Amino acid sequence: MRNVFGPWKGRFSFATEVVTDLAERENNAYEVLLRRKWTRDEVQLTTRYDYAETNEVVTTDLVKVSGQWRRDFNKVFFGQYRPTGEWNRASRLRGMPNDYILLQQELGFGYQVLVLPSRKLRLGVSQNRFDTWNSALPERHASRAVQSLFEEAEISLPWRMSISQRGVWYPVSNQTDGWENRFDLNKKLTETLSASLRHEIRRNNPDGSAIDYTRLKLMVGLDF
Known about the structure:
1 helix; 74% strand
């Protein structure tokens, strides 16, 4: 695979679960990550698909595509641009079907608090634009600009383990503040095989349509 992607590095990950007890449940998740680094720039591209059903009723059908471009101006300050697209075809809002497409664009600047070979910590502020196309009747398009604060951490551990984490806080006037967090604990099993424990949470997304969630998954990945 490295002959195909050249200087790009990445990972193909998946998680699957089939449970039969009082109900029949099936959960699947697939993700492809591509990453490339230069002296001062880093680019990441991620495509993800989550699907779940209970008793043959679809409860999750989500496609998410995201990117990141980070530019280090010097050893202290950096800027980044993060576009994200989310297509949810099994969403419900206040008990009613609420399929939506969400496009979020985040432009931010930050300060590198800690830069060590085994530990990194970054803090920053961003300007976000949310565009939502909602298929629930009446169909509508909504757009909103929101500021946010973010922090990012990367830690290398013994036994070929690592931690990556990113949290975002959206302080919104006249509305409950939104926030989200993603935590990954990764373990390299071989040069090409890895496993990760991922915890994700999102509450009160400022766009008004995207659903809240808490997810915990054990992912198996193929690195290239």
